[in-house]
Amino acid sequence: MLDVSDLAVSFGEQSVVSGVDFTVDRGSLVGLVGPNGAGKTTVLRALKGTLDPDTGTVRVDGDPIREKSAKAVSRLVASTPQGTALSFDFSVRQTVEMGRTPHLGRFDRMGEDDQRAVERAMERASVAEFADRPFTSLSGGERQRVLLARALAQETPVLLLDEPTASLDINHAVRTLELVRTLVDDGKTAVAAIHDLNLAARYCDELVLLAGGRVRAAGRPADVLTSDTLRDAFDAETLVTTQPGTDAPLVTPLSERESVARRVHVIGTGTPAAAAVSKLAGAGCQVSIGVVPAGDTAAERAADLDCEAVTVPTFAGIDDAARERAADLAAAADAVVIAGETGDGNRPVIEAGNACLAVESGGSGHASGALDTVPLAGLSEAVASLPSATERDAARPLDQSATD
Ligand SMILES: Nc1ncnc2c1ncn2[C@@H]1O[C@H](COP(=O)(O)OP(=O)(O)OP(=O)(O)O)[C@@H](O)[C@H]1O
């Protein structure tokens, strides 16, 4: 339905987007996500044909949009702007009626069909109750819904929405995206720039992640929103898990204070080890676990959080290759954390690691009674307070010379 190929736009000397390619299938909702200044609004402007790209083409149903008349485009594409600071001296109803302009001749009056489209658009965007109020008297979120109603009244096959939920409370944000989702499920095609990554992940079929004017990732939300792509695009540490009851990703930004940035190898099984993995990954640690039976809760948690798990088939015992891989991870880690049952076979893995901590109450069965034991709640702080492997290695020759 929409096809963007090799799009490049610059303002004066400044290149703003370049090499942007993506397609939007009919009846799908694509979210444009990315940091401030990434080029999302610029791409939306190119999609509606209101700017002249340096290179590249935007096609709607195979036809270049720049070759269509403004009226033809406005019958195909409706859009809502990012800001709502428009100084309309019109009522809400009159503002929504403007959406019918592409369907009317210059001196035509609105007919019954037009009136019906306006009423229906106001109902759907929940603004009918404001119909007679001046647009300028509404709050930012109410104005945003009126502008959505205006776009809906236009009755186009394509909707372009620039931050449709930016000023909306959580109830109206969800209702707006659910409305867009319903329209898309009924056959419309929509592209929306959305800052809230979790709402974008929940409602969009696909995401296009822009940063620095380029597409950094595109595809299903779960494939686009990974810690690595988000670090690359936003220069931010995040924890990516799954939204309850869906398979959509859930992105939790980590503050620098929370981000412990330590490499930690966990040894243990079951709920205690799973809780330790979550806690450490949530604190921004690079976590590995093993050796652990495949299918154990802790192995599954590690997989959910994109952490390396050294596994062996359940009841198969620990083989040499698995033991060596886990020992290598333990030796390279800043800390080894023991949580839950470890099994005798993991003894060499524990011995390969340097700074060992055990999680309180989950530590039964671990190899040494001489370990520092910490509560789960204080685990990431305890790990952060240990020297990193690099600091330990740097200190080692000094220790040796001191004993010589
Ligand atoms: N008319 C213009 N003249 C000069 N620079 C511009 C113009 N419009 C946009 N830019 C610049 O282009 C870059 C991309 O802007 P754009 O509005 O497309 O980003 P965005 O991803 O929508 O950002 P935000 O999330 O902050 O809305 C920014 O650096 C912006 O300053």
Automatic annotation (TrEMBL):
Molecular function GO terms recorded: ABC-type vitamin B12 transporter activity; ATP binding; ATP hydrolysis activity
UniProt-listed CDD domains: ABC_Iron-Siderophores_B12_Hemin (cd03214)
Protein name as it appears in the record: Cobalamin import ATP-binding protein BtuD
Pfam families documented for this protein: ABC_tran (PF00005)
Subunit details: The complex is composed of two ATP-binding proteins (BtuD), two transmembrane proteins (BtuC) and a solute-binding protein (BtuF).
PANTHER family: HEMIN IMPORT ATP-BINDING PROTEIN HMUV
EC number(s) on file: 7.6.2.8
Source organism: Haloarcula vallismortis ATCC 29715
Role according to the record: Required for corrinoid utilization. Probably part of the ABC transporter complex BtuCDF involved in cobalamin (vitamin B12) import. Probably responsible for energy coupling to the transport system.
Chemical reaction(s) catalysed: an R-cob(III)alamin(out) + ATP + H2O = an R-cob(III)alamin(in) + ADP + phosphate + H(+)
EC supergroup of this enzyme: translocase
Gene3D superfamilies in the cross-refs: P-loop containing nucleotide triphosphate hydrolases
Ranges for domain ABC transporter: 2-237
Amino-acid biosynthesis in keyword set: no
Disordered as annotated region, ranges: 385-404
